[in-house]
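Friendly challenge for the regulars: who can give me the structure tokens for this chain first? No prize, just bragging rights.
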Amino acid sequence: MSERSKVRRAQREAKQEKQARKVIMWIAGFLVVFALCLLVYAIAFM
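First reply, four minutes later:
Bragging rights claimed.
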């Protein structure tokens, strides 16, 4: 395998890892907001 393809593969893997972290953060943020909405709903209608 040439050095150029090794470098490109490493760059692609780094980019994919960065995107995966971003997706995980969005999902975690959504879950926190959803939990807060449920908490407010439970308090308001009990």
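The helical segments are 3-44. The two ends are 65 Å apart (CA to CA). Your move, everyone else.
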